[in-house]
Amino acid sequence: MNFEEVLQEVGGFSRFQFLVLHLISFSRLVIPLHFLLHNFISAVPPHRCALPHLENYGAQADEETLELSIPRNPSGALSSCTAFFAPYGNVSNSSAVALPCQNGWVYERSKFLSTTVTEWDLVCDNMKFNQSLATFFFVGVTLGGVLFGNLSDKFGRKPMLLVSFVLGGIMGTLAAFSVSYTMFAVTRTLCGVALTGITITTISLSIEWADIKHRTFTGIIVSLVWSVGNMLLALLAYFIRDWRHLMLVVTSPFLPALIIWWWIPESARWLLVNGKVEAAQKFLSQCAKMNGKFNQTTVLETEVRQSRNVNTDSGASSTSHCTYLDLVKTTKLRKITACCGIFWFAVAFTYYGISFKITGFGLNMYLTHFTYAAIEVPAKVLTYFTLDRVGRRNVQAWSLIITGIFIGINTVIPTDYGLVRTLVAVTGKGFSESAFTTAFLYTTELFPTVLRQCGLGYTSFVGRIGSSLAPLIMLLEDVWEFTPPLIFATVAILGGCVVFLLSETLNTRLPESIQDVEEERFKKGMIEDPGLL
Fold this sequence. Notes:
two-stranded antiparallel ribbon, MFS_trans_sf, 23 helices, 4 strands, MFS_sugar_transport-like, transmembrane
């Protein structure tokens, strides 16, 4: 008896699975609150050079007065980074020279009371340090994928989830009280490490407790938390304009998540594959009782042991643990690993490339961020209905390709057509979210249980390289304004084409071992099998 049949014996997808899904969903709320937080806590407000003869004596800084001390850019706007080096009142003298700000900057405070930019003057020549903050965070996210991917396959999903919650809560709090740029960069990096641990362990837990028929539903519900969290982030950022206060508020969900952790069960599927039969039987018995299958608890022990024997025969071992090297151990795993890495890079690179560009579409940054998050909801609902009809592979491939096409279209639309550009950008964002939603589900179904967390850790690592590069690609606008969107569009289309090289996983049972993948045994557990219904 395989694990899918064991799940049917304990009630399939019923009250226990709904409870697990709700607990996991709430504990994931902290993830979106942090991932795009950079847009708000590191926003760059309008600024100019500080002028001692104005600031020290409270002189009125109207535009005519500022023109005497600050030169204009070629666009006609007052410079943000230079001022005339000359005594006040004598700047008309031909000897006056425009130099970089000598006395710091004055910031417009109407939109933000404070940001990391105003805290440490990350403007002008220091602007690269501000962009680097987002990259540091995603470097942490990248490292977290590698770290927690392997550890979760070795020690279990639940213990690593606890480590992630504790680390994230501590680092998020310390970041809010940072006394220097370096301290903030380090704590945000470590917070990124923790958030990836939460991401990959919870997605595995939720999918591994779901039966074949409800894997798509489970994946979409877990993914919807991301959209809800991003809408909440826009609202919180709108009302909380101080970056330290906002940092504390978005970190606060770690506390209830720690409490919820006690009620989240370990993956019985992982326990069985790793020979922990008694622990698996305990959670499966709880599942059976909550699902109203009281008569099944007496025969469950025999069935669980039979399932363990099947897993042992198929190559799972309780005495040896798989590592990242096993991802390239066999021919089919090498193909899966290579293709998943490519399309994950494209998914993350494109998604964050769009998400970080939240200005310039004719809407303020709060409304644009909220709109981007809101459009993800119908996109995910549409994804839910298409995944079980056209398959994971087609949805993954075409959502990426269409995202690239919409980015390209938006590039050629004149800036005067602000509404049209906004509609095209938001639609492209919806397809990019569909690609991200499908990526988690598709990857979980492609890799076997013994390597699932390593697979998710690896793909998260590659994907976060893409998300780390996305904010840096924005700097290429200074070279040619169309360079970033053309790069994003090309990567998305090429990544989508690579997906067609992978197998379809619709209506197949989850592979448990490397042998299951090589011999395609998981395809024998199709949903049409009446024994599973």
